[in-house]
Give the backbone structure.
Amino acid sequence: MRVFITGGTGLIGSAVVAELLGNGHTVLALARSDASALAAEAAGAEPLRGGLADLDVLRAGVAAADGVIHLAFANDFSSPEAVAKAVAEEGAALATLGEELIGSDRPLVTCSGTPFVPGRASTEADLVPTEGPVAGRGRAVTAVLGLAARGVRSTAVRLPRTVHNQGTGGFAGLLTVIARQTRVSGYPGDGAQRWPAVHALDAAVLFRLALEQAEPGTSWHAVADEGDPVRDIAAVIGRRLGVPAESVPAETYGPLGPIFAADQPATAVLTRQALGWEPKHPSLLEDLENIQP
Ligand SMILES: NC(=O)c1ccc[n+]([C@@H]2O[C@H](COP(=O)([O-])OP(=O)(O)OC[C@H]3O[C@@H](n4cnc5c(N)ncnc54)[C@H](OP(=O)(O)O)[C@@H]3O)[C@@H](O)[C@H]2O)c1
């Protein structure tokens, strides 16, 4: 398949590009800068110059492809305004990708987040949140899944709080960045809240399987570790950096504070059964041992 990908130069996207190329697909990668275009080319993809806000470029990318994978996101959590801007930009881009595919039966694989359900691990059958700081992302994904009724083989790969590679990435990666800055490996509350995780190389396999096999309108969980207590994550980060691990106020994490404080384990039982996905790369706690002081 010729696959158009957004975010193909990111932590997850670069693993997805390698996975696609290694399994007989070719890749057209959205690239918003010269550096990104060079990176895409070096990885073996053909770059398509433009950003998420260049809707005509997105349409051209879809027109040239047999399937689409969407991963680009600004990932700017510095303020509520920055989050809202990133969510709005992504929502418009995703809607454009979906509209261009209507009636074609071609696949559109978008990323989403694993939901959190009070008192138990979330499953593929639970709905993504439509309230909270990133609710707009949930609404955009839900709209794309609704295009299943209009001739789009739309599907969502829900990612856990940390998608990691070589000790970096996701929420655990943010904890590491903050720990380097503040010289404290912090966590909100008592740290008993659990976050799920997956290695980027394992998540990449699931994106490929969803592209190739998923039924329209379905959601999947790229979850390898169902939930590590955040204080265990912070303990490894603290030990690797030589700084103390301790509880800090949730406000330390700005707009992400309430999300960081929530217990949100998730499972991937249905995903493993239905798509034959079997994660095999290191767990988060193992991978964090790659952090260098
Ligand atoms: N890593 C995680 O733990 C995790 C967990 C849950 C969900 N996710 C989601 O998974 C997706 C990918 O995450 P990631 O960790 O791979 O992110 P990342 O490493 O920050 O990569 C982001 C990618 O998006 C591209 N991008 C950002 N803004 C863009 C724009 N305006 N126009 C065009 N391209 C743009 C970047 O391009 P450049 O190379 O040019 O910067 C890069 O390829 C995101 O939606 C993220 O929210 C990630």
Notes: The pocket of NAP is lined by residues 6-13, 30, 32-33, 36, 51-52, 71-75, 111, 113, 159, 162-163, 169-170 (CB under 6 Å). The two ends are 42 Å apart (CA to CA). The mean pLDDT is 96.
